[in-house]
TrEMBL record:
<dbReference type="GO" id="GO:0016491">
    <property type="term" value="F:oxidoreductase activity"/>
</dbReference>
<dbReference type="Pfam" id="PF07992">
    <property type="entry name" value="Pyr_redox_2"/>
</dbReference>
<protein>
    <submittedName>
        <fullName>NAD(P)H-nitrite reductase</fullName>
    </submittedName>
</protein>
<dbReference type="InterPro" id="IPR050260">
    <property type="entry name" value="FAD-bd_OxRdtase"/>
</dbReference>
<feature type="domain" description="FAD/NAD(P)-binding">
    <location>
        <begin position="7"/>
        <end position="296"/>
    </location>
</feature>
<dbReference type="InterPro" id="IPR036188">
    <property type="entry name" value="FAD/NAD-bd_sf"/>
</dbReference>
<keyword id="KW-0274">FAD</keyword>
<comment type="similarity">
    <text>Belongs to the FAD-dependent oxidoreductase family.</text>
</comment>
<keyword id="KW-0285">Flavoprotein</keyword>
<dbReference type="InterPro" id="IPR023753">
    <property type="entry name" value="FAD/NAD-binding_dom"/>
</dbReference>
Length: 451
């Protein structure tokens, strides 16, 4: 006798929701899967929004799957905003219909932060997260003379780059002493500071927004900083972080703190209701070096994979993300980080830091003083293999072993400058060593650096 068909409804078509839908379908051909989003008809790469604005891509280029993929895999898509949820009746309510569910997965993502600034709702003032935000930015930046971007994070530098691609003068307000210095050690932060300024972005460190001033038509005309300076601006980007997009769930019966509270299996306090991705907040952080809310693309994918496995298997497993990883791009400089590299560390740790003479590439390796096992790595302007450092950190390789094998971590293109020999030379000078790379065999030269 066939099992009764279960209706799995996913709110949100970002990386978490779509990964979960795909992996449920891989293991369960019987379940009815419905993905609901008011943002777009299809899943798209959110990190590519900036390239649409910059003219490098069109929207259709950002879709990882062809439009026919969803029907072929029997995954139903619905474009709608869900306004309320009746958990007792298991009913979702949009503006014009009610939708039932057996299992509900909340993957509603994030929304840009606003901190109650005077003028934050003026025309021409906005954040950047959704496709609708991109469309609004197209409208808001037409014919403007000056822009101000508020908030020194990843979205802020992306927005500044987008504006500069159209030759719009940008003033970038960062309240910290140095760019992203709550995440990056001093040298890496200074490297990014220089790079921002080289791209003709007016970087104002130690500068906070006080209020946004409007004209008689309700449109932004300038901003005032906390030191009293008035900066002309017909566009203001608010990029002071994001927070879980859960406004429609307040007072719904779900346990909510900053995000939707879940256990290590993504279960909420309501039976058969789960939360994954940016909107989920773990009761207990997954590990000592993790936060309760994970707003990173690759962790969103892992959330979706783990929950899909648990919903289609008899041996449910807790979420175990492993070694921390993230990547980003600061204008022309690519950035990768593995493990833990805080801006400051205690006396039990030390670090090895190398920077290229051109100031566009660097490598930092954090390690324990006791046995020199590595704890984390920052790489700028140097593409590094994820699997290499995942293994090295997991297996607690010693610093020297990592240095001697860096050529295997190199993922730069064929004609890109290779840095591993320069790093080895500095390591030898700094630690009084005479280490040398083993000469590659003929077979290794053919197979490449990983042989």
């Amino acid at each position: 006798m066939n099992k009764p068909k279960k209706r799995v409804v996913i709110i949100g078509n970002g990386i978490s929701g779509i990964t979960c839908a795909r992996h449920i379908r891989k293991k369960d051909g019987n379940a009815e899967i419905l993905v609901i989003s008011g943002e777009t008809d299809h899943f798209f790469s959110r990190t590519a929004l900036m390239y649409i604005y910059m003219g490098h891509m069109k929207y259709e280029h950002t879709k990882p799957y062809e439009d026919w993929f969803w029907e072929k895999n029997n995954i139903l898509l619905k474009k709608a905003w869900i306004n309320t949820i009746d958990f007792e009746r298991r009913i979702l309510k949009s503006a014009d219909e009610e939708i039932g569910f057996d299992i509900l997965i909340l993957a509603t993502g994030s929304k840009p932060n606003k901190f109650g600034w005077v003028g934050q709702d003026l025309e021409g003032v906005q954040g950047l997260y959704s496709y609708q935000d991109l469309e609004l930015m197209e409208k808001n930046t037409k014919g403007i003379r000056n822009a101000v971007v508020v908030g020194g994070g990843l979205i802020g530098i992306e927005m500044a780059e987008m504006l500069r691609s159209r030759n719009i003068p940008v003033t970038f307000l960062v309240r910290e002493e140095s760019f992203w210095d709550n995440i990056l050690p001093t040298e890496e932060s200074n490297l990014v500071n220089r790079h921002i300024q080289e791209h003709h972005i007016d970087l104002r460190l130690r500068t906070e927004l006080d209020e946004i001033l409007g004209d008689q038509n309700g449109r932004v005309k300038s901003v005032r900083t906390k030191n009293g300076e008035i900066l002309e601006a017909q566009f203001v980007g608010l990029t002071a972080g994001v927070s879980p997009n859960i406004g429609f769930l307040l007072n719904s019966g779900l346990k909510i703190n900053r995000g939707i509270l879940v256990d290590s299996y993504f279960k909420t306090n309501v039976e058969d209701v789960y939360a994954i991705g940016d909107c989920a907040e773990f009761y207990n952080a997954p590990s000592a070096d993790r936060k309760n809310i994970e707003q990173v693309w690759y962790t969103g994918r892992m959330h979706g994979e783990t929950l899909a496995y648990n919903l289609t298997s008899s041996d449910a497993v807790p979420y175990k993300p492993g070694v921390w990883f993230n990547s980003a791009k600061f204008l022309d400089i690519e950035y990768q980080t593995y493990g833990q590299v805080p801006p400051y560390w205690d006396e039990s740790m030390s670090s090895f830091y190398w920077e290229d003479k051109g100031g566009k590439a660097c490598l930092r390796i954090l390690f324990t003083k006791a046995d020199k096992s590595i704890l984390g790595v920052n790489g700028f302007g140097w593409r590094l293999r994820h699997e290499f450092f995942d293994k090295a950190i997991s297996e607690k390789w010693q610093l020297e072993k990592v240095i001697l094998n860096l050529h295997k971590a190199n993922f730069n293109t064929e004609f890109h400058k290779n840095f591993h020999e320069l790093v080895l030379n500095q390591y030898n000078q700094q630690f009084g060593k005479k280490l040398a790379l083993k000469k590659s065999s003929f077979l290794q030269k053919i197979l490449g650096s990983r042989a």
